Please model this.
Amino acid sequence: DLEGAGATYREAVRISAEAGNPSMAIIAATNLGDVLLAQGCQHQAAQIYAEALAQATQPDGGRAPLVDRILCGLSHVSYAWNHLEDAAEQASECLAVSTQWGNFDMQAGAWLLLAQIEGAQGRVDRSLEAIQTAKRLIDTVPMSGRRAAGLEGVLMGLWIQHGELDSPAEFVATRHLSPADEIVAARELDY
Model:
């Protein structure tokens, strides 16, 4: 229920700000931006992300570790608006911050986002290189099941867009997935 999630995050932003906890306010705002983006409210999401980025940037220009998620959100908005140079810059900044702070799942997400952007700009070789870099991270760094499944879903879509059908087929085979399977809760993330 995205509407309920949005209301909850708005309330969390308000409560965090009133309690004088800027870190929690920034996290809640970033989550709100993600919900708004999922709802197709790109302008509202962009405004929320921009405000969160301003709050998370210190006077000396330093940035908190959670800035990577904000930059990822901004990059998704820019990509949706076909502002590909901005999207690439934001995704690259996301990659730099997530690398600095050791946030491996966000690094993989940034590489996949860069792969999408490169592909949209017709740079197939660079897109495939970014896909391979993301795949190495996904395969070698422990991530939560839900996050890994989300990244793997994007990875499958990118492979298919590039006509690399063997890779998704191998993925499905190694997980023993079949379209005829009943999807049970225990294996929901696999599907």
